[in-house]
Amino acid sequence: MRKNSIKNTRINEEVLRALSNTIRGEIKDPRIHPMTSVTSVEVAPDLKTCKVYISVLGDEEARKSTLAGLKSAEGYIRRKLAGNVNLRNTPELTFISDQSIEYGVKMSKIIDEVNKNIRSEEEQSDGENQDGTAGEDYDES
Predict the structure, then answer these.
(1) 70, part of any domain
(2) Residue, of 101 and 141, whose pLDDT is higher
(3) CA angle (98, 104, 110) in 5-degree steps
(4) Residue 11 maps to which CATH number?
(5) What torsion, rounded to 10 degrees, do the Cα atoms 57, 59, 61, 65 define?
(6) Pairing mode of beta strands 49-56, 36-43
(7) Which DSSP symbol is given to 36?
(8) With CB atoms counted within 10 Å of each terminal CB, which end of the chain scores lower, N or C?
(9) 3-class SS at 123?
(10) Are 37 and 17 in contact (CB under 8 A)?
(11) Mean pLDDT score of the chain, rounded to an integer?
């Protein structure tokens, strides 16, 4: 089975859906931050291992405690995965911190700030042109 085969893609999607539901709704560990999401899953072609990319919207402390909570609940999560997704082998889960959502939010704020500055500069330059203090004067002689 190739890594990017259709079958492997479907398995990744099913595992992602099952893990998201389990982490969001069934784990009661207080270390796991409520704003935790599974961004992507990579199941190996032999179905032995699985990399689970986790995004936590919070500070570094929340991210570390969430990963620790997920690692301690790995057996429970794996058992739930085996019950929800019918696979020949239930893969071993490796949780990896993914900061792409946080990075996207940060970049979006920076872009909004730059756009706001550009708009305020344009409004100031438009105001100067209406006063006649800045801009070209035309002589109709």
Answers:
(1) yes
(2) 101
(3) 140
(4) 3.30.300.20
(5) 0
(6) antiparallel
(7) E
(8) C
(9) helix
(10) no
(11) 85
> Is residue 40 assigned to a domain?
yes
Of how many residues is the chain composed? 141
Strand ranges (DSSP E) for the chain?
36-43, 49-56, 92-97
Asked if residue 19 lies in contact with residue 77, where contact means CB atoms within 8 angstroms, the answer is yes
Q: Do residues 59 and 19 lie in contact, with contact meaning Cβ atoms separated by under 8 Å? A: no
* 42 burial via Cβ count (<10 Å: 0-12, 13-18, 19+): middle
Instruction: Establish if 31 belongs to a structural domain.
Output: yes
Q: Cβ(101)–Cβ(55) under 8 Å?
A: yes
Query: What is the tally of structural domains in the chain?
Result: 1
Q: What pLDDT, on a 0 to 100 scale, did the predictor assign at position 75?
A: 92
Q: How confident is the model at residue 130 (pLDDT cuts 50, 70, 90)?
A: low
pTM comes to: 0.71
Assess if residue 34 is contained within a domain.
yes
- Domain that includes residue 35, residue range: 6-98
Q: Residue 43 pairs with which residues in a beta bridge? A: 50
- The two tokens of residue 53 are 């990319």
* Assigned token pair, 127: 């105001």
- Taking the C-alpha atoms of residue 17 and residue 14, their distance in angstroms, rounded to an integer, is 5
